[in-house]
């Protein structure tokens, strides 16, 4: 009876040891799979970090380019604004000069008109005097 119980326990122990070995092998396989998965994830993280670094670099380069372009456009705008101010000033001077010349021309025309009238009267007077002097001995 004891021998039979011992034999039965040994068989049960062997079965349990085999199950333990199988479980340890499965656990080792799972650990190996997890290690592979961890390595794959580490590699993916490295690749994504590299892509992120490249994107940051690209964005910084693009921002620098935009800043330079914006500075250039700002300088160009300032230059054009100065040119516009100078042109407005020049236009104002030309308009003032034009107005002065128009006023001068108007006064000279009025003066010419007055002189023409005076000359016409003087002619009439001269003709009158000649007519009168021709009638006198």
Order of helices and strands: H
Oligomeric status: single chain
Q: Based on helices, strands and strand pairing, what is the structural class?
A: mainly alpha
Can you give the mean pLDDT? Answer: 95
The biggest beta sheet is recorded as:
none
Radius of gyration: 57 Å
Strand content: under 5%
Uncertain segments are: none
Question: How many structural domains are formed by the residues?
Answer: 1
Distance between the termini: 197 Å
Topology, number of strands: 0
- Give the CA-based shape: rod-shaped
Number of helices: 1
Helix fraction, binned, reads over 70%
Coiled coil: 63-97
Keywords: Coiled coil
Protein name: LEKR1 protein
InterPro entries: LEKR1
């Amino acid at each position: 009876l004891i021998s039979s119980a011992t034999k039965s326990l040994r068989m049960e122990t062997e079965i349990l040891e085999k199950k333990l070995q199988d479980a340890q092998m499965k656990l080792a396989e799972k650990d190996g799979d997890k290690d592979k998965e961890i390595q794959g994830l580490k590699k993916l993280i490295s690749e994504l970090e590299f892509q992120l670094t490249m994107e940051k670099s690209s964005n910084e380069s693009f921002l620098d380019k935009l800043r330079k372009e914006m500075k250039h456009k700002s300088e160009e705008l300032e230059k054009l604004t100065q040119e516009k101010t100078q042109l407005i000033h020049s236009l104002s001077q030309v308009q003032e000069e034009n107005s002065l010349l128009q006023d001068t021309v108007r006064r000279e025309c009025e003066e010419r008109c007055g002189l023409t009238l005076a000359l016409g009267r003087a002619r009439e007077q001269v003709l009158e005097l000649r007519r009168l002097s021709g009638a006198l001995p």
